[in-house]
Amino acid sequence: MAHHILEGGFQEWESPLYQEALKQFDHVAELMGLDHNVADRLRVPQRALVVTFPFRHDDYSEVESVFGYRVQHVLTMGPTKGGIRYALDVNLGEVAALAMLMTWKCAIVGLPFGGAKGGVRVDPLHLTRAEKQRVTRRYVTEIIGFIGPSRDIPAPDMGTDEQTMAWIMDTYSQQVGHAEPSVVTGKPPELGGSIARREATGRGVMSLLPLAAARLGLDTDGARVAIHGFGNVGSYAAVAAAEMGCRVVAVSDISGAVYRGDGVDVAAAMEWVRRHRTLEGFGGGDRLSNEDLFAVDCDVLVPAAVGGVITAANAEDIPARVILEGANGPTTTEADAILADRGVLVVPDVLANSGGVTASYFEWVQDLQHYFWSESEIRGRLHEIMARAFREVAAVADEHRVDLRTAALIKGIGRVARAKLVRGVFP
Fold first, then answer.
1. Catalytic-role residue among 81, 105, 117, 411
2. Which one, of 236, 194, 191, lies nearest residue 374 by Cα?
3. Cβ neighbours of 373 (radius 10 Å)
4. Do domains 45-179 and 200-352 have the same CATH topology?
5. Rounded to whole angstroms, how far apart are CA atoms 178 and 23?
6. What is the pLDDT of residue 4?
């Protein structure tokens, strides 16, 4: 397969996560017999914006310049959709990879979006609230021609939250001269945010556990769950797991892991993090390293932090029978093959963590219509969409005798490819 579009321009996207996204795509494209012209087009983002901008620290004597990014992978399906993350390792390749994964994710669950992603290379833990606000408002000002309710709708991601989205909405609204809540999702409910959006990704991940467990004959009642990452996704996955009757035996964040064989007190852990920002100092179990969490005795593993954490180096030692990917790109291609050989059922990120973007879609629709649904309606529709997507992906997996990740990508890539072909090439 020729990849003419990459000649002389590949270096801009170079990153481990982008390489993993391409490996997945190329494998599935070959398996599908995808038209090489379409495949060539989908390997790189349609639009990418890189900005640099200054912001003042609180003492006003230091002005720091930082990099910001916004990437739109495909505009064929409708407006693009994707989160904004603040982290020191944000780069163009990572953002481009996540935008590509978001395209497949939206297509898998049937949302009318292309994939996008954005970020600022800054450490949010070392920013005061005022500094974070100044970073956010200046970043939005730099990318304002790139986003919009019918163009590109951001959402929270790692290092950002409801308050960040409120600042984005306000900055955009100031520029256009009227309140525009539909420019962003994941906002506070007072500004048109969905009352269930905050919990949607984590709860959506765990909603698939009964369906995944049924494929293995695994009883979820009392199942031991280990969760890598205790941010928004991981913490609400832990809450949902406990509500389902599972035992959350381990949780972790940037400060390390906490293990308790009888089950971690999830509510106490969440309260500790709310007050102290990390799990450091939490006494609800034995302390482990983040790496050791992957080897704890469990039935279900939920990687819900960052990408590339399940690798060829640790895949053999993971005792879990089911892996639900709450994070984006947590499993490398080499680890995928090892887990498949061992019979571990991996529910891939493009399916497992699609609850967040699905709830964001609900929020966007409600903002456009100025009509809001009840929490029970939102949860019911979310569960219905995710369960249907899982069953459809499982059917593809059974038909083609492939793993769930390959099946999900066959479904998502196929939908985008068909849309590309029926729209044609302009001019």
1. 117
2. 194
3. 18
4. yes
5. 44
6. 43
Distances in Å between the alpha carbon of 208 and those of 202, 228, 230, 235, 384? 11, 18, 19, 16, 11
- Specify the CATH architecture of the domain 200-352: 3-Layer(aba) Sandwich (3.40)
Helix axes 197-207, 375-400, angle to 10 degrees: 40
Give the residue from 193, 191, 264, 197 showing the smallest Cα distance to 226.
Answer: 264
Could you tell me the pTM of the whole model?
0.89
Res. 185: pLDDT tops 80: yes
**Which residues 6+ apart lie within 8 Å of 248 measured at CB?**
225, 226, 227, 238, 241, 242, 263, 264, 266
Task: Copy the structure tokens of residue 362.
Answer: 């609900």
Contact between 318 and 295 under an 8 Å Cβ cutoff? The reply is yes
Say whether pLDDT at 382 is over 50.
yes
User: pLDDT tens across 406-424, in order?
Assistant: 999 999 999 999 999 999 9
> Is 329 in contact with 349 (CB distance < 8 Å)?
yes
Say if residues 195 and 189 touch (Cβ distance below 8 Å): yes
Identify whether 124 is preceded by a cis peptide bond (ω within 30 of 0): no
3-state class percentages of the chain: helix first, strand second, coil last, to nearest 5? 50, 15, 35
Residue-range domain boundaries for the chain: 45-179, 200-352
Q: Is 117 a catalytic residue?
A: yes
Statement: residue 3 has pLDDT above 60: no
The model's pLDDT over 141-182, given as tens digits with 9 standing for 90+, comes to 999 999 999 999 999 988 999 999 999 999 999 999 999 999
155 bridge partner residues = 83
> Residue 7: which pLDDT band, with cuts at 50, 70 and 90?
very low
Q: List the single range of 4-8, 109-113, 115-119 with lowest mean pLDDT.
A: 4-8
Yes or no: domain 45-179 corresponds to CATH 3.40.50.10860: yes
